[in-house]
């Protein structure tokens, strides 16, 4: 082999080695680049979140608090719920999923709230019972003492006729039994108060009746809330919804107070806290009866247990009130029977609220009374006088501003509370 051939051979071998080295470097670099997703967790194109899902999640994070207030009807609320469920768990981040599913509150049970409210009633109504007990525990009651008893009853909003009757009954009891011992007098007073409060009245809400007492299996049980603005009517409707949710019932509410723009928003805020849908109009000043009709139809279609209808409390005159409330009831009963018409009264107004109560009673025919604000400056005797004036029972009482400060009225608990001396 000559010199030139050797040179060519060396050059060829060198080029081959260089080519092999370059190829190895390229393969190594390619492998390193291809393995990077597993090391860092970056998304591949096939794993990317669709633009509509990511934007929806962002919208949920920024607008979850106001979603309910902007809903115009059950249909719009349902469509929002359906769109939020369209995103699969795999495509949405845990943070977005958490923000899209707001935490619902758990209302207090009826048993628990009755115990708590009994203690509060005892505290607020204590002066009434204590004053009576102090007078009646004297060894010898004079005419002046009996006048003091009657004055105490009047100051407690028992009412003139009821106060006079109760005093005469107590006089007879003391004279016949000849008792002056404190506990005996207290027992006599308790018995008379239970009689005058009328413990035998049926105070149960239709929606709470056991199935064997229901005339049929129809749904929903419709409750219309009436009362002047300022009594806590809309708030009470929201609290009543919580009460039924705590009892395991499915509830819907209707914002038929279309004259007050804030009423529907307020009702939706209450409903949003416990997952209760609200039917409302998409414009202020709409026909309240049409809202009530839509709600009744939707509640029946969805087989809700209870429908609570909030109505307006500020109208120009009695004729307008009767016309509107009567129309609401008529259109509802084209679809579902109205079981309850609850009149919401502010207990602190005392006897001054009786005239208003009578107007509503005449306008629509009430089945029960809800006394709000029975704590504070309210006097327990209003329970007695309002029942005697309207001839219907107090069914619910509110004893505070908390969301669960509403409970079924129990006469024995009420009397025990106002006679508690400790």
UniProtKB/TrEMBL annotation:
One Pfam family recorded for the sequence: SRP54_N
GO MF annotation list: GTP binding; GTPase activity; signal recognition particle binding
Highest taxon, organism lineage: Bacteria
Membrane topology label: Peripheral membrane protein
Residues given in the record as GTP binding sites: 227-234, 310-314, 372-375
UniProt entry tagged with the keyword Ribosomal protein: no
Domain SRP54-type proteins GTP-binding: start-end pairs: 393-406
PANTHER family: SIGNAL RECOGNITION PARTICLE RECEPTOR SUBUNIT ALPHA (PTHR43134)
Subunit annotation: Part of the signal recognition particle protein translocation system, which is composed of SRP and FtsY.
Classification via NCBIfam families: ftsY (TIGR00064)
Family membership noted in the UniProt record: Belongs to the GTP-binding SRP family. FtsY subfamily.
Protein's UniProt name: Signal recognition particle receptor FtsY
Organism: Bifidobacterium aquikefiricola
Gene name as annotated: ftsY
